[in-house]
Amino acid sequence: FKRPIPYNQLSAQTLITIDDGVLAQTNNISLISDELALTGDVSVNVPAQGEASMALLAHVEKGHAKFAKHYYPHLLMGDDLVNYLDRAITDGELSQAEIIFDGNFSDFPFTDKPGLFNVNAQLIGSHFVFDEQWPAIEKLHGTLDFTNNSMLITAHAGKLEGLDVQGVEVAIDDLSNEQILTVDANIEKQLPEHVS
Predict the structure, then answer these.
(1) Which of 14, 18, 69, 168 maximizes the CB count within 10 A of its CB?
(2) pTM, whole model, 2 decimals?
(3) Cβ atoms 143, 166 nearer than 8 A
(4) Is residue 84 helix, strand or coil?
(5) CA 157 to CA 138: how far, in whole Å?
(6) Mean pLDDT (10-residue bins), the chain, 196 residues
(7) DSSP 6-27
């Protein structure tokens, strides 16, 4: 993360077992802050021989887009993509998000190794700016999904210069390399005056 996560209230149950390595299990995590509310469970296994791994399942709610930049997986995404998303998603609420990480740390982002990394977040009333020279999507209701080495944003509702953006998909298939942004939109159902 870009900075430590602030909190007003934090509770959890932790069990650490040291026997031919270290197994740390933290259950019933509850974190409440001015930025979000998080619940979850995490287990980190560091064997004496072999690879360190983590199993994490977390649920986030009551978030705001302006804080999202603090929670992106920077090691996977890199500063360019994080900075782009920080400029692109400028307003709106995070109604809920699920976060899963299951696998060896050294195999992350699991492009050709077993494991799963997934963040699936629901955005409400967001403002999405593709580029400073393009018009923004207003009142975007959509899903932001990171799965292993890819990102997909799917619009469920919103407006772009009067056009309905329902079904528009913005994707980056490979976050580790070229990070090519693709936009898939069906404009056939739009009024002729909105299509140039």
Answers:
(1) 168
(2) 0.82
(3) no
(4) helix
(5) 9
(6) 86 96 97 93 96 94 83 69 78 90 90 91 87 82 89 88 83 80 69 48
(7) P-SEEEEEEEEEESSEEEEEEE
